[in-house]
Every structure is written in structure tokens, then in C-alpha cells.
Design goal:
By secondary structure, this protein is an alpha+beta fold. The chain contains 20 helices and 60 strands.
Length: 1089
């Protein structure tokens, strides 16, 4: 199949946006049009080595050959195909250089997929996609880095001390991250800071330090200075020494959690025995989940920043020595990285899925973007990948802030330090606290008066815990504190969660819990308060132990809500990811505390190593099912109280490896649409009347006796009018065989939207958008005593849908009455309709036919997946309510711009967004850009209007003209409405009320506000808008009934009448948006008689 790169690359980013990305001011000239670069992987038609290797192995086994003969046959086939892939890639590399001189090669692959990764100007992508042999152009979304008490909570010590003494011995675990400090005692190294300093990461490791029994191999793919998110850091410098950087140490921390030996209180490597009775207090760094598994370090991050090297790393994990024999592939791979709004079309997600299909358990972090719909991170969105959310364990270690005076407050206060400040251990930072007067949070530069107050003092500032409520981040506050001459800053939070801070490298900053911050505020107002923030030797690091048993099995605030698609619901399970203590790079034998799903994932990677050691013959799907089936609930309240979190937040639940190792039966979703998933998902389902749909769950029995299970359902989120039904109520699984349970989604009548009970319905003071969901877990309770119960996530998002259309027209002088006919939505709140004067249409991008030739490919007009068309504009239109508002229409009126797409997006402003360019003063130059966007870290979905020259924000209005407490069908939709207040449009006057407009789709990533990088557009000639609307006297003025309000998101049902007022000849086409109709039928084009 073929695809144009301009289409394939752009559209895939709908589900895989760039990490650490935010839309810059439209006027940011350095990031406009042809200067915008993106990383892509050009996949070739030539088959990669893995399928050939697998096919030959299967054939040899079918012929009953010996294991050695199977290996030889598979290796020969794999090596031969790898050579063919290499030749094809060599040929392509020359063609890339000739067709796109500005493209820069990143790496080549040939094991999981045959291709070459390049960084290229966005304007070069069409030419790259048309090169001979290129099958598809996949986006490479930049990935960011996303145990003493947590490991016992997961049941690992019970497995270590079991009859087999399973500690993961013999299992290989790949850590694809920032490298591993193999000199650390946790990995059997010398355990001194000097031994780390003696290693030059750009040179071969000193003999005896690496490779070791623990870290047996690896490769650095990038070098210390690599960071593709910066103009100067995008050239990798690979070498064979995968040592980590002390600056960040992310990979070392991750590796310690997965498979560190442990470090005793005396600073020595712990060598066992590993038993259930180990005292966490007796360790400087506790053992990892699989303490005797071996580690393979693949470094894809420099000392800081992001990466675009993951697919190459996964290719290496499939064949570490590159010889085409894939039997040396890694058993488990951990990916504590990702990009938000991820999806299965990201190159890295594709590669991760193929590696799992080959036989490697791939574990990925769910992401740290919080409770936002569809924000789940890639590659964790790949169906076969085991995706991990972050829960809370019963113990946390905080850094210490020492209060020196006044005496009643003296002592240690728990705090979390900033990551970018590197002098906690070698500088003394001590001084009096000071409060600014002209502002409280430090989000703008301090006034001269406040700067005088803060000079040589430590600033005490306020901090909002939730992203949507927060005016700025820690880096801006730290910068402003440093510029004011402050010694450092403390952030007093409005909650109890001490989140991670970035800060800066100039001054130390730390965050305090609400009660401690309030206590310090009161004390400073009463008199001098002196504190010690940092001191040489670092005795304050991790100095405050916090037992929190009441928070066990709650969720962290940052863990990402996943995705619920047909056949797949993510994440898959949860593990502890808050205040996790593990090995610190460069610290010899010391540790550090980190938060994140990055910390949750390696717990599960270690658990997967234990299950793989226990069941070496099980498939990846079976190992994944064992871990998911044997989980427990996570709760919204302390002491395991309140609502239970549903599958989109924690998958099956919190992991329990002792049960996963012991279960004789595994259960997973069955059917061709599943493709490696375990959870069962119906995805979004439009409901126009009584509905019944069924799917199946398969149980596989590995025991030598039949096992019986009773079926049941554990609800998490409920939806009035919808239910799951299970049949049969008992199922017997034969020895070595399978049995099935049918899950039926039933909606007999009316269906009303209801929120997930764990949702915050208001974010940043505005009602959020949300969808109704029916979810929980299938519970399979064994009749046999001692066998664990099994759980399978169940998910559906049925929504009331209408089948409404414009019917008969009655024309009178200057008006047309338009009647709505059909079937209304079966819901109490009813359906909605909006009407616009049609501005223009665009063709549907066709599917690529099988075996498409170069001629079709050169046309650049086909796509390989239907969802790609969520960036393909279908029709656009405009409406104005100025004639209806009366009074001061230019002051009180609103312009509404409608976009209809050829496929739905899970959420607006995810990986791709819709934008409009407006010329408001008639000079044929774009004055403002209106973009579908979201308030940071939230589901408050807005139309943001920016000045095209300065980037200044002019207006913010809710998408579809309603905040989220009104259901306008905004999620999982192929239409949206961008409102902008007329008073906010420059140059608009009574005498010049005509506006030119054009709509376009673009990446929701840096450098894309310019139409030169548009994926699809209607009404643009170059960057100049060409469609017109007179906002004071629109050619078509549509009202809800005679003399009613402007018809934008107004109620709709059979019999509703729209009054169309016409001005002038030629205005005869409407774009109607039936907001509750199913995909493909929401937008209706109507010709007026």
C-alpha cells in the first residue's frame, strides 16, 4: 500500500503529538513554514528480517526439526533478509540525499521494519513520500522521559522466597533510556563516586567496569549532547559505552527499580538471599523487582532533553548483535518514555508492537499528562505493549527543609527539590524567608519593590497543584526569583501532593505541602523566619520518611488517562510511581527519589521478568494477561474508599506478581479486532435506538485438570441506560484447552451521559468536556480453593445519536423555512444543530489500493488508515449572530466558523488541530489565527484567537460555543465550531464588516501556526484567506424558529424549524451540523430552493 508523506505523516500525528510541545506565538518567524522540521521514518516495501526469521522458524517446527535445526533455519532466513533490507535502505539513502538535500539521516532499521529515519523540512516530506520503494512515512514523535517499599507491595518478595527461588535469574531486561551507571553498587559496580568520574562516556569503558554480570551489554545511540528538541542538539554521536549522565540519571533510577541487586545500609552491593522477610529500612537502596535479572542498556537520551531514536533502539533489542538470528532478542524491554496524545501510527508504537509480536514483553509508561481524555502516551498506545499507570504505595521519602528559627518551628519540613539545580550537595543556601507584595506566585517578573524585598532572601510563593489552575511552571518562577536576587524559592502548594519540579540551574527551589506552607506564611507575617534549603554533603536529600498507609492503592495526580478505542483500552495496569527511591547515577551507592509513570513502568518490567522466568514457554499475550488478570482495585479515596478507578485510568488494576506467577489460567479478549490486547473494548458506539453488541473473552488453562470459574462484573463507571451482560454464569476450562465467555453491551432505550465519578468536572474554573463511559472488570472467581480470581477490563463509550436531516423547505419573501426530520437522540437532554453559510468543500483522501503503483503514489492522494482523514477537511462555513444580538452588534456579536472532517478525532487539539486564518481589515493579509486548543492540562476545549503578527492572545471561547457541562458531542467527533467575539477582531468597523477567512489543519506542535505547513485547507491561497462573510449582514442568517436566536448549538428534534434569511443572489448553500448524528452524517450540505 502507498501513501503520500504529506498526508501519512501529518495525519498520524493526530494520535502521536510531539513531546514537550506547545504552540508558540504565530509571529515566531524562526519556526514558520519551510523552516519547520520533523522527524519521520520512511518505511520501505522490502520485508524486514523479523517476519522472515519467524516464518522460517515456524516452518522448521512444523517439519518437526530439532531445536538446533530450527534455530539454524531461522537464522539463515533472518540474516539473508537483513542483507536485503540493508541493500534497500542503502539505495533509499542515496535517493533521500538527491531529492531532499535539507534532510538529515538519523538512523537505519532492518529487523522490525525496513526503513531510514530522517529529520527533514516539512516542505520536503511530499518528495520523500514519493521516492521509489517507500511504503509509508511514519511520524517520530519526540519522546520525553516520562523501591524499598513499593516492590514488597507488588508481591515480589513472595516470589523470590517461593519454592523455585525466582529472582529473574536468566532473564534479560532491556532499559531503553538515558543509559545505566554500571559503576553503582546497585548493579555490582565499585560503588564509589570516583569510579563514575573516571569513566569517559565517549570512550570505551575501563576494563573490569563494563560489561558486568549485571549490565551485560548495551549501546549508546546518541551521546551526551544529543537533544533533537534543540537546533544544535540533533546530531547523534553513537558509541559502545552506555553509561548514564549524573545530570539526570533517569535510566539508572529505572534500571534499579526493575532489576537492581540492592545496596545495604553500609553502601555495599547486596548479594542475597532474597526472601520475603527483608527489612526495607536495612537498605540504602532496596532490591529491584527482579534482582537477579540481567540488564541491557540502550541509551537514546542525551544528558537532557528528548529523543527521536526509539525505533532504532527497538530494532537493536530484537537483534542485539545484528546477525539476523533473533533468538538473542531481549526477553523484556522497559520504555519509561513517551509522547502525549499517542496512537498506533507513531513509528515507535509500530516498532514496539512488532517487537512484542516477536516475543519480547514490551513495558511502557502511560504518561504524566493527568486526567485528560485521549492523552495516553505513545508507544504505550500499541495494542501488544504492556502500559503502566502510576499508583501510590504506603511509604514516601521527601527531601528536607530545615527551619532554623523561630524556635517553635525549628526542625525538618518535608519538601521536594527541583531537578535542574545541581548544587544541593556542594553549596550552603540558608537565609530568611521573604514574601512579595505585588504578586504571590512569581509568574511574572518581580517589581522593583518586590525585588528589593527578596534580594538575598528565600522567596515564599504560592503554588496551585493542578495544571489547569496554575499560571506558570517552576522554571519561570525560579528564573524570576534569580533575577530578583533571591537565594532560592519555596512554593507553598494548595494540596498535599509534593510534585516534581524542574526549576532552573541558578537557584534552588522546592515545594511544600499545604499545611507546612500555611504555617510558614503565618510565621513570616509575624516575624523573621530562617531556613536552610541546601547544605554541603547533602544530608537533607531524602531525609524525611513519610509513612502514608492510608494512600495505598490510590492514583497519582499526574498519571495519564488512557484511550478507549474499538478493540483496545489503555492503560493495562498500575504500579507505584510516586516518591520512588532507587539508584542515583554518579552517587556510588546512593539513591534518589523520583515521581512519574517512568517509575511505575520498571516495577512492571521487573515483574514481567519474574513471570517470564516462571513460565518461559508462555507467549507475550499470555504473560501480559497473567499480570493483568491478577491485579487489585485502585481507589479515589484514602483507606481504599470512594469510587474505584476505571480501565481508562488503571487498566485491570494494581499489579500483584505473586498471583500472576501462580495462576494456572489466563483470560484475554478474543477476536480479530483485538490484535494483542487483553482488555475488552467496544470503543465509542453511537446509539440511535435499542442496541445489542457482543464480544468474547477467552480463558486458557495450563493445568492438567479442568478448572471452573464463576463469572461476575465489578462496575467502575456507570452509564444510565447501558449495561454489560455475561454468559454463561459458570465456565469450565478443559486441561490444556480454552473456553469462552460472551460479554454483551446492551442499551434497551434512553441513554444519558454521566461522568466518571472520579472526574473533576471543573478545571481552571470552567466546565470540562467529558464523555459517558460504561466500564469495569469481568471477574472470574475460581471454584478451586487457592487459585487466584481473574480480572479482565471491560470498556464501552456508547453515546446517544440522532438520525436527523434537513427536510421540506417552504420559501417566502426573503426567507426559507427548513424543517428537520428523522429520529432524535434517545437522551433526556436532546440533540443540537448548528447552521452556517457554506464556504467551501474539499475532496476525501482515497484509500491506497493494494499494489498501488508509482503513478498513484506520485499523485500523493491516498492514505493507508481511515483514521488519517481526521486531518482531511471536508467542508467549512461561517455564521454570525450580530444581526440577532441587537444593540451594539460589533461589541456583543460572535463569529462562528465550522469545520467538518472526513473522519473523527478522539479529541480536538490532540496531535492535529483545526485553525482558521482571518483577514479582518481587508488588506489581504492574515490578521488573526483562531485555533482549536485546550487549557493546559485539561479538557477545557477552547477556540483561542491570536494576533498573527505578535502572537498576543486576543480571545478565548469554548469550542462548539458551549462549555463542557453541555454535551455538544465534541469528543470522538468529525465536526467542530470555532467561535470568536467580534469585539476582539482588529480593524472591524461598521463600514468594513466583511471578513475573509480560510480553515486548515496542522500539527499541534511547535512551528505550525503558519498555513505553509497545512495538511489540508479550504479557502486559502498560499497564506491568504479567500472566503468571505459579512459579520453584520451575513448572506445567510439562520435562526432557531421565526425570530429566534442564531442557530448555533441550538436544540434539534424532528419538527424543529430553522428560519433562513437570505441577503443577495447566489447565497443558496448551507452547512448544517447535526452534532449528535453518527460519524460521516453530522455535516449536511443543503441547497436552498
Amino acid at each position: 500500500m502507498r501513501t503520500s508523506s504529506a498526508l501519512r505523516f501529518g495525519i498520524a500525528l493526530l494520535t502521536g503529538s510531539l513531546a514537550l510541545a506547545a504552540v508558540p506565538p504565530v509571529g515566531a518567524a524562526a519556526e514558520r513554514g519551510p523552516d519547520v522540521r520533523h522527524s519521520v521514518l520512511l518505511e520501505l516495501d522490502t520485508e524486514a528480517a523479523a517476519p522472515a526469521w519467524q516464518r522460517a522458524a515456524d516452518q522448521a517446527r512444523g517439519e518437526r526439526r530439532s531445536p538446533d535445526a530450527v534455530r539454524r533455519a531461522a537464522s539463515a532466513a533472518g540474516a539473508e533478509q537483513r542483507r536485503a533490507a540493508t541493500r534497500a535502505v542503502d539505495q533509499l539513502a542515496g535517493a533521500v540525499r538527491r531529492s531532499a538535500p535539507g534532510a538529515r539521516e538519523l538512523y537505519r532499521t532492518g529487523t522490525l521494519l525496513t526503513g531510514i529515519a530522517v529529520s527533514a523540512p516539512v516542505t520536503a516530506l511530499p518528495a520523500l513520500g514519493r521516492l521509489p520503494g517507500v511504503r509509508a512515512v511514519h511520524p517520530i514523535a519526540l519522546k520525553s522521559r516520562v523501591n524499598g517499599y513499593s516492590v514488597p507491595l507488588l508481591g515480589a518478595p513472595a516470589v523470590w522466597s517461593g519454592p523455585s527461588g525466582n529472582t529473574g535469574r536468566g532473564v534479560s531486561v532491556g532499559i531503553i533510556d538515558s543509559g545505566i551507571d554500571y559503576t553503582h553498587a546497585d548493579f555490582g559496580g565499585p560503588g564509589t563516586e570516583q569510579s563514575f568520574k573516571d569513566v569517559d562516556g565517549a570512550k570505551p569503558a575501563p576494563k573490569g567496569l563494563y560489561p558486568t554480570e549485571k549490565v551485560y551489554g548495551g549501546r549508546d545511540l546518541v551521546g551526551d549532547a544529543y537533544d533533537p528538541g534543540t537546533p544544535e542538539g540533533g546530531v547523534p554521536k553513537p558509541d559502545d559505552n552506555p553509561i548514564d549522565c549524573a545530570l539526570n540519571g533517569h535510566g539508572t533510577h529505572v534500571a534499579g527499580t526493575a532489576a537492581g541487586y540492592g545496596v545495604t545500609a553500609a553502601g555495599q552491593t547486596y548479594r542475597g538471599p532474597y526472601t520475603g522477610g527483608l527489612d526495607p529500612a536495612g537498605f540504602k537502596v532496596g532490591p529491584g523487582a527482579a534482582p537477579e535479572a540481567r540488564l541491557f542498556a540502550i541509551r537514546v537520551f542525551g544528558c537532557d532533553g528528548s529523543t527521536d531514536q526509539l525505533t532504532q533502539a527497538l530494532d537493536l533489542a530484537a537483534d542485539p548483535d545484528g546477525d539476523g538470528d533473533l533468538t538473542d532478542r531481549l526477553d523484556v524491554v522497559n520504555l519509561s518514555l513517551g509522547s502525549p496524545f499517542g496512537g498506533p501510527d507513531d513509528a515507535d508504537a509500530i516498532a514496539a508492537d512488532r517487537l512484542a509480536a516477536l516475543g519480547t514483553v514490551v513495558v511502557a509508561a502511560a504518561g504524566n499528562e493527568g486526567d485528560v481524555y485521549a492523552v495516553g502516551g505513545s508507544p504505550g498506545t500499541a495494542p501488544r505493549v504492556l502500559t503502566v499507570a502510576a499508583s501510590v504505595d504506603p511509604h514516601g521519602d521527601a527531601d528536607g527543609l530545615r527551619v532554623l528559627a523561630p524556635e517553635p518551628l525549628a526542625g525538618l519540613v518535608p519538601a521536594h527539590w527541583s531537578a535542574k539545580y545541581q548544587h544541593w550537595a556542594d553549596r550552603e543556601v540558608q537565609g530568611r524567608l521573604a514574601l512579595p507584595v505585588d504578586q504571590s506566585d512569581g509568574c511574572t517578573a518581580f517589581s522593583a519593590a518586590d525585588a528589593a524585598r527578596l534580594k538575598d532572601r528565600i522567596a515564599l510563593l504560592s503554588w496551585r497543584t493542578k495544571d489547569p489552575d496554575r499560571a506558570c511552571g517552576s522554571a519561570a518562577r525560579a528564573d524570576h526569583a534569580a533575577e530578583a536576587g533571591a537565594l532560592g524559592a519555596l512554593f507553598a502548594a494548595d494540596g498535599d501532593h509534593l510534585g516534581e519540579l524542574a526549576g532552573n540551574d541558578r537557584v534552588p527551589v522546592a515545594i511544600l505541602a499545604k499545611a507546612d506552607g500555611e504555617r510558614l506564611f503565618r510565621a513570616v507575617e509575624a516575624g523573621p523566619v530562617t531556613v536552610q534549603l541546601a547544605t554541603p554533603g547533602n544530608p537533607l536529600h531524602g531525609a524525611v520518611a513519610q509513612d502514608q498507609p492510608q494512600r495505598t492503592d490510590t492514583l497519582t495526580t499526574f498519571t495519564s488517562r488512557g484511550v478507549g478505542l474499538p478493540g483496545m483500552v489503555k492503560p493495562d495496569l498500575a504500579a507505584p510511581g510516586e516518591t520512588i527511591w532507587s539508584a542515583k547515577a554518579g552517587a556510588g551507592s546512593g539513591g534518589m527519589r523520583e515521581d512519574g509513570t517512568s517509575m511505575a513502568a520498571p516495577h512492571v518490567a521487573g515483574l514481567a521478568a519474574l513471570v517470564r522466568a516462571a513460565h518461559p514457554d508462555w507467549t507475550v499475550a499470555q504473560l501480559k494477561a497473567a499480570l493483568m488478570n491478577t491485579t487489585g482495585d485502585t481507589w479515589a479515596g484514602d483507606d481504599r474508599s470512594g469510587p474505584v478507578y476505571g480501565p481508562e485510568r488503571t487498566g485491570a488494576g494494581r499489579a500483584r506478581v505473586d498471583l500472576a506467577v501462580a495462576t494456572p489460567v489466563v483470560a484475554y479478549a478474543a477476536g480479530p479486532e483485538v490484535d494483542g490486547a487483553v482488555g475488552l473494548s467496544f470503543g465509542p458506539v453511537p446509539v440511535t435506538g435499542p442496541l445489542t453488541q457482543s464480544r468474547e473473552v477467552e480463558l486458557r488453562n495450563f493445568a492438567d485438570r479442568p478448572l471452573e470459574y464463576r463469572t461476575g462484573y465489578l462496575p467502575a463507571t456507570e452509564l444510565p441506560g447501558a449495561s454489560f451482560e455475561l454468559t454463561p454464569d459458570r465456565v469450565t476450562v478443559p486441561p490444556g484447552g480454552t473456553a469462552r465467555v460472551t460479554v454483551t453491551l446492551r442499551v434497551p432505550g434512553q441513554l444519558d451521559r454521566a461522568p466518571d465519578p472520579t472526574l473533576d468536572l471543573v478545571q481552571g474554573g470552567k466546565a470540562r468536556s467529558y464523555r459517558g463511559e460504561l466500564s469495569g472488570r469481568l471477574l472470574l472467581t475460581p471454584a478451586e480453593t487457592g487459585a487466584p480470581a481473574l480480572r479482565v477490563p471491560l470498556f464501552a463509550a456508547p453515546h446517544a445519536a440522532s438520525e436527523l436531516t434537513a427536510g421540506p423547505q417552504v420559501r417566502a419573501a426573503g426567507t426559507t423555512l427548513l424543517s428537520i426530520t428523522g429520529t432524535g437522540a434517545p437522551t433526556a437532554h436532546g440533540a443540537l444543530v448548528s447552521a452556517f453559510a457554506l464556504g467551501g468543500e474539499a475532496a476525501r483522501w482515497p484509500d491506497c489500493p493494494a499494489g498501488a503503483g508509482e503513478e498513484e503514489k506520485a499523485a500523493g492522494v491516498c492514505v493507508t488508515a481511515p483514521g488519517d482523514r481526521a486531518a482531511n477537511l471536508r467542508a467549512v462555513g461561517a455564521a454570525s449572530d450580530a444581526p440577532a444580538v441587537g444593540g451594539e452588534p460589533l461589541e456583543n456579536g460572535t463569529l462562528y466558523l465550522a469545520a467538518s472532517l472526513w473522519a473523527p478525532a478522539a479529541t480536538p487539539a490532540g496531535g492535529v488541530t483545526v485553525r482558521a486564518s482571518l483577514d479582518t481589515d481587508g488588506d489581504q493579509v492574515t490578521d488573526v489565527v483562531v485555533t482549536a486548543d485546550r487549557r493546559k492540562g485539561s479538557d477545557v476545549l477552547v477556540a483561542r484567537t491570536l494576533d498573527a503578527r505578535t502572537g498576543e492572545e486576543l480571545d478565548v471561547q469554548p469550542l462548539n460555543a458551549r462549555w463542557g457541562d453541555t454535551d455538544t458531542g465534541l469528543l470522538d467527533s468529525d465536526t467542530l465550531v470555532l467561535p470568536v467575539r467580534l469585539a476582539k477582531l482588529p480593524g472591524l468597523r461598521q463600514s468594513t464588516s466583511k471578513i475573509r477567512y480560510g480553515l486548515w489543519t496542522a500539527f499541534a506542535a511547535p512551528g505550525t501556526p503558519d498555513p505553509a505547513a497545512a495538511l489540508s485547507s479550504i479557502g486559502l491561497q498560499g497564506d491568504r484567506p479567500t472566503l468571505t462573510v459579512d459579520v453584520l449582514a451575513p448572506a445567510l442568517d439562520v435562526r432557531a424558529g421565526a425570530g429566534g436566536p442564531t442557530a448555533v448549538t441550538v436544540p434539534e428534534q424532528p419538527g424543529t424549524v430553522l428560519e433562513v434569511r437570505r441577503r443577495g443572489a447566489g447565497a443558496d448553500r448551507l452547512l448544517l451540523v447535526h452534532h449528535f448524528n453518527p460519524d460521516g452524517r453530522r455535516a449536511q450540505l443543503v441547497r436552498l430552493r
